């Protein structure tokens, strides 16, 4: 039976865990994060362009 380990005062940063499951999850999520940020940036830029175009008409 394992002894209960109290939580460390410093929380683990995202991606600090090195177990295989966490590493695999991180490997899957990292490109998804980048793709989501790119998509959101593209949508924001598109709306800005549309609003600018409407303002200049």
Automatic annotation (TrEMBL):
Membrane-spanning segments: 35-53
KW Transmembrane (keyword) present: yes
Keyword annotations from UniProtKB, A to Z: Membrane, Transmembrane, Transmembrane helix
Protein name as annotated: Uncharacterized protein
């Amino acid at each position: 039976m394992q002894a209960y380990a109290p939580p460390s005062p410093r929380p683990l940063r995202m991606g600090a865990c090195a177990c295989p499951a966490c590493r695999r999850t991180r490997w899957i999520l990292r490109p998804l994060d980048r793709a989501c940020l790119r998509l959101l940036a593209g949508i924001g830029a598109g709306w800005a362009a549309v609003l600018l175009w409407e303002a200049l008409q």
